[in-house]
Design a protein that fits this description.
This protein is of the alpha/beta class. The protein is built from twelve helices and 26 strands. The protein has helices spanning 15-29, 51-56, 61-64, 68-75, 134-137, 144-167, 184-199, 230-242, 284-289, 335-353, 395-413, 415-431; strands spanning 7-11, 35-40, 44-45, 66-67, 78-81, 83-88, 93-97, 99-100, 106-108, 111-114, 117-120, 125-126, 175-180, 213-218, 246-248, 253-256, 260-263, 268-270, 273-276, 280-281, 300-301, 314-316, 321-322, 367-372, 376-382, 389-393. It has a five-stranded parallel β-sheet with strand order 5-2-1-11-22. It is globular, with a radius of gyration of 23 Å.
Length: 438
């Protein structure tokens, strides 16, 4: 490094990116040892595992969101609003797309930023596997905006059914929702929808009944939650079916239409709302850059220090990172992986600036938890000493699931503000409705 302060640029303010920017802001930015810049195309941060709660109205992003500008000012880094579209690793420059408002009026021109050390934490998006009709007719849960669009449409459909029941008491109107993908997103969203439909009766939707909500959870494989142990998958399936969710396994979708999904055996699964959550990939523009070694999901392959292969000054973390362990298995795209990668990348960037040796990344699997709304939770916890897993469910599992979000809050806010936020949430429940109804 030269005598000037190094420019450290982080692209993507998801769980890993925001935690990294916060750590480096405290360790380097506030101490005037480096310039830290976080880039994101959104103005606020929402923990991605909570998007299904925004989609149902269980969570209000205006309360739980984190303003990047405000957070940056408090924690020693800069925030730049922009969408990453290009990179020149030889000039050490990255390009940001021009920004416009919702009316198409220009806000910011194309931008070029210089860096000394770059971290890509760009996350992932839904993979529709080029299934015909999916992009035209389905909702996705890749961002806050998409989740809010789904929530608005969901509320409109519930309003339609409720008012039709009042005006036409014998009408057979209902809300039919079809979700493709039996992973964590599909399972958690299904349970949350059941919970929300029951809460709506307390807010004037008293004409709704259990038979007027139909939920189909569709999975192409032979079981739900394919990345998790079978015992967890079976417990989740049993719980969902008891809640009234129709679980359809070994069902491949070949097309989406305005009326619903078409299966491989030409069955039409009718739906008013269709959501696709059947896999993830890194956005295609990363492949179009033609700079990195990628896997089939466009994830960037990295070395043992989380640096992109062939680049000593570009780190990759989170869902965009393809890290292969010594055993040959790849680290799964989970929030706990992004958290661990952010911590190690912060240490290695600091070591790089101080011209010290880097430490290799070692992933520690602490287990997995799936939240079934307020009804239950299931999962397994990994033992640090025995390496065996402990199956947990019910209230204990739900408490531990909630603690994952508290850990994320602690990483970006610190313990005192995390406790204050928890207390504020408790107080807000007294004066605010349990659902976002607008």
């Amino acid at each position: 490094m030269n005598n000037q302060l190094p420019n450290i640029v982080i692209v993507g303010g998801g769980a890993g990116g925001l935690e990294l920017a916060t750590k480096l802001g405290h360790q380097l930015g506030k101490r005037k040892r480096a310039h830290i810049t976080l880039i994101d195309k959104n103005r606020t941060h929402i923990w991605k595992p909570l998007l299904h709660e925004i989609a149902t109205g269980s969570l209000d992003p205006s309360i739980d969101g984190v303003s990047y500008c405000a957070h940056a000012a408090k924690h020693g880094f800069n925030f730049v609003l922009g969408e990453f579209i290009g990179l020149d690793p030889h000039k050490k420059q990255l390009n940001l797309k021009a920004q416009t408002d919702e009316s198409g009026i220009a806000l910011l021109p194309d931008q070029t930023l210089n860096y000394d050390i770059l971290t890509l934490s760009i996350g992932s998006i839904s993979n529709d596997f080029n299934t015909p009709g999916v992009s035209q007719h389905c909702f996705f849960l890749d961002s806050q905006k998409q989740a809010e669009r789904f929530q608005n449409s969901l509320l409109n459909n519930f309003t339609r059914v409720n008012q039709s029941a009042h005006n036409l008491p014998n009408s057979q109107n209902n809300v039919s929702i079809a979700i493709v993908g039996g992973g964590a997103t599909g399972v958690e969203l299904s349970a949350e929808l059941v919970h929300v439909s029951s809460l709506l009766k307390h807010y004037g939707f008293n004409a709704l009944n259990d038979t007027q909500l139909t939920i189909h959870l569709i999975e192409a494989g032979e079981r739900l939650l394919p990345a998790l142990p079978n015992r967890i998958a079976q417990a989740a399936k049993t719980e969902l079916e008891q809640l009234g969710v129709t679980v359809k396994l070994n069902t491949k979708i070949i097309r989406a239409t305005e009326f619903g999904f078409i299966t491989h055996d030409n069955e039409l699964i009718e739906a008013d709302l269709m959501l696709w959550a059947a896999g993830v990939k890194v956005a295609d523009y990363i492949a179009a850059l033609n700079l990195f070694k990628l896997n089939r999901q466009n994830q960037i392959e990295v070395d043992s220090y989380l640096r992109a292969v062939n680049y000593s000054d570009i780190f990759v973390l989170g869902d965009a990172c393809c890290f292969t362990e010594e055993s040959g298995s790849q680290v799964p795209p989970r929030a706990q992986a992004a958290h661990q990668m952010a911590s190690m990348t912060a240490k290695n960037i600091k070591a790089l600036i101080e011209q010290q040796n880097l430490a290799p990344f070692i992933y520690k699997d602490h287990g997995s938890l799936v939240n079934l709304s307020r009804f239950s939770a299931v999962g397994n916890l990994m033992g640090n000493l025995t390496k065996n897993s402990l199956f947990v469910e019910g209230k204990l599992a739900r408490i531990m699931y909630i603690s994952l979000y508290r850990m994320h809050q602690n990483a970006i806010h610190g313990p005192f503000k995390t406790i204050a936020l928890w207390l504020a949430e408790k107080l807000m429940r007294i004066v605010r409705p349990k659902l976002k109804l607008h």
